Amino acid sequence: MPYSYYFFDPTMIFVYIGMGLSLLASSLVKSTFAKYDRVRSQRGISGREAAEIILQKNGIGYVQVLSVRGHLSDFYSPKDKTVNLSEATENSTSIAAIGVAAHECGHAVQDAVGYMPLVISRNINPVCAICSQLAIPIIFIGFLIGMSGFIQLGIIVFAVAISFQIITLPVEWNASQRAMRILEEEGILSPQEIKGVRAVLTAAALTYVAAAASSVLQLLRLLILYGGRGRRDD
To answer: What pTM value is reported for the model?
Structure first.
């Protein structure tokens, strides 16, 4: 197979579709967050205060709320038992900020109760991270030197890598559902405000869906290329 065919072939449409989905999802989450970041919560509670309330109410006050730099760089660290909020989220009283803070606390609750998809994703993450770095180089070498075994190995490695993205989907969805339920049950936000949070968290979840879809499309492309090469070899 010519070197140029791998990079400039009709199956590149799968790559372009994946890129388009990712860009659309990213644009949606930014615009949705910006919209509801302008809506102040009725109780005037900040993202940090909401997080602390949620953690205390769920009996996991040992989880610390820390501040990190960046915009929408919030995350939960199961290793350090910390909910890390970006400065804008931590100090803002918008329903968007509260929703994001609650979502990260949702991950803390998952960790506390031993939510199985979270446990699985945490355990396979190191392996998937390594596979993600090795997959494309292995496939490239296979195409370059014409070894089907290398190509097949690379595709398998790539499939293992994207399994983390797929397992992450229910983890993120469940964290958002927990967040909205807790916010409503504790009276942190009104039912009307919860609708705004749902819009923000749904938009955020779509970024994970888009990333997973993009990777699956890339895998499909690789399978088509490998299948076509196999037929020519025959």
So the answer is: 0.84
